[in-house]
Amino acid sequence: MEKKKANIDRNNGVIKLRGVEKSFADYDVLRGIDLDLYQGENLVVLGRSGTGKSVLIKLISGLLSPDAGTIEVLGNEVTTITERELEELRIRIGFSFQNSALYDSMTVRKNLEFPLVRNRKNITRAEIDKNVQEVLEAVGLSQTINQMPAELSGGQRKRIGIARTLILNPEIMLYDEPTAGLDPITCIEINELINEVQERYNTSSIIITHDLTCAKMTGDRIAMLLDGQFQRVGAFEEVFATTDPRVTPFYDYNFIQ
Amino acid sequence: MDSVNNTTSPAPSRISKTRSKVADFFLMLYRIYAFILRFFKEVFLPPYEFREIVRQCYEVGVRSFTLISLTGFIVGVIFTKQSRPSLTNFGAESWLPSLVSIAIMKALAPLVTALIAAGKVGSSIGAELGSMRVTEQIDAMEVSGTKPFKFLVCTRVIATTITIPLLATYTAFIALLGGYLNVSQNEGTSYATFMEQAFEPLTFVDFWASLSKAIVFGFTIGIVGCYQGYNSTKGTEGVGKAANGAVVTAMFLVFIEEVLIVQIAGWFR
C-alpha cells in the first residue's frame, strides 16, 4: 500500500500557482491559493465535493480562467500566453478526465490516434501504429484496440483515457478522480498504473481525489483543500495528524478505526 | 380594492417575463452571430479535415434521404392535386405543370428540405455535440492540443452547406416527378410536354435564388445545431434543450431568411 520514494527535483517547480482565485456566481471556490508541483512528484489534492479540486486542474490546463492570481506551467504563464502557445503547452500536459471522456463515436485505436495525428506533423502510419501499441501495452489493454468505448468496463475506460494522454509523452499528468466509481480491486490497479506512469514516463502529476487509499498509494505529497484554500500540505501522515473536525472525517470514513 | 390588486398584480410580472424572454432571444442571436464570426475565422485555417467533411456530408445526406424522398414526392402529388380544381374553374388546367414547377422550384423544394433537415440533421447535431460537451469529450479534445471547433463545428457546417442544396435539388426533382405522375394520370400529358411546360416559365434568377436559399438554409441549420450543442450545459437536460433549441431556432431563422431572399431575388427580376 505504501508508495515507493520517487525521484523528485525540489529545485525544479513545473507548476507554480500564486494567489489564484476563482468564483462561480456568488460562490468563491478558490480563495487565493498557492501551490507548487515539483519535477517527478505526485501531488494528491484532497477535499470535499464542490471545493474546487477539478476547477484547480481546469485552471492549470487553461480550460478555465482565474479571476485573480498567476498560474505558471512549465515556465509559461497560462493566463497571459497566446492561444497558439496554450495549444503547444497543452501537448505537454496529459489530462485524465473523471468519466474518461473517450470519443464514443471512435474505436479505441481512433481515440488514441486522434491527438497523435493532429499534433505530430509528418508522422508515418508505422509510427502511429507503434505508438498506439506501446501505450496500450503500458496500460495492459492491447486486446481492446478495435473495441468501441461503450464496450469497455469503467476501469478499462479509465485506462484507455490515461493511454490517450500518454501517447503524446506528457511531462505533467492531471488526474481528475481517477478511481471514482470503480470497485476496490480496479482502484488498486489504477493506483498502480498512476505510479507506473510516474516511473516509466518520468511525469509530475496532480491527482484529484477524495479516495484516501488512492492518496496514500500514489501521493508523494498531499494537499488538503478546505474552504477554498490549501490548509494542510505535507506527507500523508502529517496531513492526518490532526484533530481538525474538517479533516478527521475523511480518515475515519476511509480507514474505519 | 384587494380583488383589484390581486387581478392586476400578475400583469407586470408577465410583461417582465416576456421582456426577459425577448431579451434572451436577441442575446442568443448575438451569440450565434459571434459563433458565425468564429467559424469564418477558423474555417480557412489548417488543418482542413477533408475526411471528416466527407463523412459528415454522407451522414447528413443519408440521415435525411428517405424522409426527403417521401416528403418531396408527396408534396408534388398533393400540390398538383389541390391546385387542379382552382385552375379548372378558370379553364386553365394546361397551366398546371407551370404552376407546380414554379411553386416547387421557387419555394417548396428548398423550404421543405430545410424544415426536414432542421428536424433530422439540426437536432442530431445539437444532441451529438451537446452530449460530447456534457461528457467532457470536447474538453478532452481541447486539452490534447487539437482544435475541437475546427473538427466538430467547421466540418458539420461545411457538410450541411454543401449537402442541403444537393438535397433540395433532389427534392425538386422528386416533387416534379410526383406532380408529373398526377398530371399524367389525370390529363394524360406526356413527360416531354410536362417538362417543357414546367421549365418554360422559370428563369436563371429563379434557379439561382432557389439554390442560394438552400445554401443559406444549409449554413443556418449547421451553425445553429452546432451552436446549441457546442454551448450546451446542465448535463443530460442540456442535451435535450440543445436538440430542441437547434430545431426551433433553425426553423425560425429559415422562415425569416425565406422572406428576405424572396425580397432580394425580386429586385433582380
UniProtKB/TrEMBL annotation, chain A:
It comes from the Bacteria. GO terms for molecular function: ATP binding; ATP hydrolysis activity. Residues 15-252 form the ABC transporter domain. Keywords: ATP-binding, Nucleotide-binding, Transport. The keyword Transport applies. Pfam families: ABC_tran. This is ATP-binding cassette domain-containing protein. It comes from Mucilaginibacter phyllosphaerae. Coiled coil: none annotated.
TrEMBL record, chain B:
One of its GO terms (molecular function) is phospholipid transporter activity. Coiled coil: none annotated. The keyword DNA damage does not apply. InterPro entries: Permease_MalE. Pfam families: MlaE. The keyword Disulfide bond does not apply. The chain crosses the membrane at residues 22-40, 60-79, 99-118, 157-181, 207-230, 242-268. Keywords: Membrane, Transmembrane, Transmembrane helix. GO terms for cellular component: ATP-binding cassette (ABC) transporter complex. PANTHER family: ABC TRANSPORTER PERMEASE PROTEIN-RELATED. This is ABC transporter permease. The lineage of its organism: Bacteria, Pseudomonadati, Bacteroidota, Sphingobacteriia, Sphingobacteriales.
